[in-house]
Amino acid sequence: MCSLEKRGNLFFLTLTGDDQHRLGPPLISSILSTLSKISSEATPGSVLITTAHGKYLSTGFDLSYARSAPSPSEALDRLTSMVESLRPVAAAFMSLPMPTIVAVTGHAAAGGFMIPICHDYILMRSDHGVLLMPEMDLALPLPDYFATVMRERIRSPAALREMVLRGAKVTGEEGVKMGIVDSVYDSTEKTTEAAVRLGEELARRKWNGDVYAEIRKSLYPESCRALGLTQKDLPSKI
């Protein structure tokens, strides 16, 4: 599941409970409802910081839940349902009316990688944790919106190939070189502290959240189409 805490202008969304934070129906629903609450409570200067307890940010979809279905067809239905239910979560992150920062202090794999890649800023530990897309090894196709978001967020064709077609385990320092990760730190505490410092810096700008969200959408038009997001016409103030 996940928890929500607010300190001043900073919202802290923390994945809790199961150390692997598998993206099954309960966790997906919990994240989506929490993001809806954050969006409704946003004010100028709000910032989201996403973190997780334990060794992992998320190991992706709950494949054990899918495989426990009574038949192969029902297992496929469960997996398909989880894939589709994560789409609005990605859309919610991409349309949140505030800057978003994720502190990756553990592994973010497969569907779990969609959480950091949908944030504005990715901060990561240098001594633990990897970014990983193991779909080739799992013999699972890449969902269409995964591919679209990753193409727009990972601009280097070589980096995209390494992650998706080779299933490379990307450390924080490698992620910086690839242009995926913004900065790295040598402990969970330092990573989280850096996320808070960045959050406080951004919060001081007191940006209009609706404008921020619409400008973000304009930067990633293909992702927005894949996620079912449309841009809103906002009145200009001169």
TrEMBL record:
Keywords on record: Lipid metabolism
E.C. number: 5.3.3.8
Recorded metabolic or biological pathway in which this protein acts: Lipid metabolism; fatty acid beta-oxidation
One GO BP annotation of this record: fatty acid beta-oxidation
Signal peptide span: none
Reactions accelerated catalytically: a (3Z)-enoyl-CoA = a 4-saturated (2E)-enoyl-CoA; a (3E)-enoyl-CoA = a 4-saturated (2E)-enoyl-CoA
Domain of life: Eukaryota
Gene Ontology MF term list: delta(3)-delta(2)-enoyl-CoA isomerase activity
GO CC entries: peroxisome
Pfam family, one: ECH_1
SUPFAM superfamilies linked: ClpP/crotonase (SSF52096)
Entry similarity comment: Belongs to the enoyl-CoA hydratase/isomerase family.
Protein name as catalogued: Delta(3)-Delta(2)-enoyl-CoA isomerase
Organism of origin: Lupinus luteus
Organism lineage string: Eukaryota, Viridiplantae, Streptophyta, Embryophyta, Tracheophyta
